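The material for today's practical consists of a large collection of protein records. A record pairs a protein's sequence with a compact description of its fold. Instead of coordinates, the fold is spelled out as a row of discrete tokens. We will come back to this pairing of sequence and fold again and again. Here is such a record, shown just as it appears in the course material.
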Amino acid sequence: MADTLDQDVTALKDWLSGAWRYLADTSLTSFDRREIRNYMKDADIALRAGLNRMAAARPEAERVVLALQLPFLSGSESMGNHDSEIVDADSVD
């Protein structure tokens, strides 16, 4: 089942990528664009469901490791731990 699910997710990703490129075609009518966007919404819903099933199928040990890594990803080097000064409006001439 995992192989089939993985293949389905890959196929949906590929289809959506191609659909975005096809949507850029200037010869499409507004009806065609609307229909493609509707199919893209359906494909996106199916892709999200597949990704959720893949995440749920992971062993518990892998999910715990991922949860433990989250605090390390929450900080941003651009927001802290750097040597720049904070400048407010009163200090600018």
